[in-house]
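Recap from last week: sequence in, structure out.
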Amino acid sequence: MHQVNKIVRDLSQLIRGNVVDAGEVEYQSAVMIDNGRVRHNPTVVVVPVDHDDVAVTVKYVADYNHSSACRLRLTARCGGHGASGYCLNTGGIVVDMRRLNNKAFDRKSGRLTLGMGNIWRDVYDYLEFVAPTMLPVGGGCPGVGIAGFLLGAGFSFVSRSYGLGSDNMKSLTVVKADGTIETLDKDNNPDLFWAMRGAGGGNYALAVETELEAQPTKAEDMMVGQIIYQFDHMADVLAYYNEWIEEKNFPREMAVYGYFGHQPNPRNPSSSHKVLTLRLTTIFNGNFEDGMDCLMPLLRQLPRPALVDFRRMTLPEWEDFIGAGTQVEGRSAYIRSVISEPKSMTPDVAHVFKKHMIRAPSEDSFVVWTHLGGAEEEDFSEDDGCFAFRHARYVPEVKAIWDSSKPDEMRRNVEWAYEFYEELADASGAIGAYMNYIDPLLVDWQQKYYGKYYDRLVKIKMKEDPNGFFDFQQGIGSDFNPSPPKPGGSLDLSPLKRTFA
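Predicted structure tokens:
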């Protein structure tokens, strides 16, 4: 307790922001994230108000570790949506970035300057006020923090139009392991700038601000909607969908995501009974009529949808409407992901979807996938960040969700998602996994998240942070690799309960 008091006292004298411990309300809000499964208790939480506060905190911890036999860990929290909880730690310091939420828009350059404590909802609201015809390439769930999203590549509903979130970062200001502040871009420390765009979260430096290119929307109100099919029709629908989105004239302005889970019965929406359905979510970055023209080949196919709902909305309005449905919202969760190539939504994949969703332990669980390609694939190169799977088409995410008040349900739900992923990866010919859905149980995660870039990322780590100040269980250079269960054995869940190896 004496040591805790000393750390609080020291940092309180050094920074302008707040330094709080477990007895304070601000501490409790900082350690709660969007996953009731994860609980960690840092020694203190630092809430900086500017870049200097962050730099002083990092230097304090670095000096402490240099002079002490006991290492003090430091992690940073933005939106709290990282399902594995690596933004937290036990016994160390958490830097809560929420007050670094500055926003500015330069009309001449079309660029946003954003503090890394922002969440996407606040950025959307700000830009809608100052430049309503401009749009950031941001998260589909408005409550997600911009930092984790951008530093992990960032798939957006408009990535097919404008690229990944990280593709649109023009500069990034970071605090390095020695406490110095540096602004990175393609001319200043380009190797670190490259690594931070796709592998930046918790690995090299603490990001405090970015300059982000905003994009002009192709219609003030986009054509958005949902097409819902009955469970029994899924295989036929996916067989057509798999070929249709690869047609030469399929526009990059159209993204068609998928969701398979329990929803209100489309034929009896007033009923409280939920049924398994397939939902295709459409986002067309253009006017309503052109979007409908694009969708007509799908809508004319048999089987017919059980429900069709198309709307004219701004993208932020749609994200508020649809994004909330995939949040954990205080429940417990475990997430796994696959990245797969074009035409990989095969009958075998449809069979795996059906097999595992029928036996899901919780009706709250689902599988959802991102539709990639277009600008993300065609307009950017290897120099534009370390996302290794530009040619991918689908990113299915298996999301096990259960009641946090029933911790005994954890193993059953985790094992369900684990087995689902293993079969889905085989059926789809998976080429990787998505770092922003980081999974502590993923075997050979280094190659699955970073592919051919991993060795280069390790070299940059050794140059920029040779002592491993920025560290976590699945950080760049970590030797941690979980073991798959042995035949007849049980799955080791211990990696889910820690943030460091």
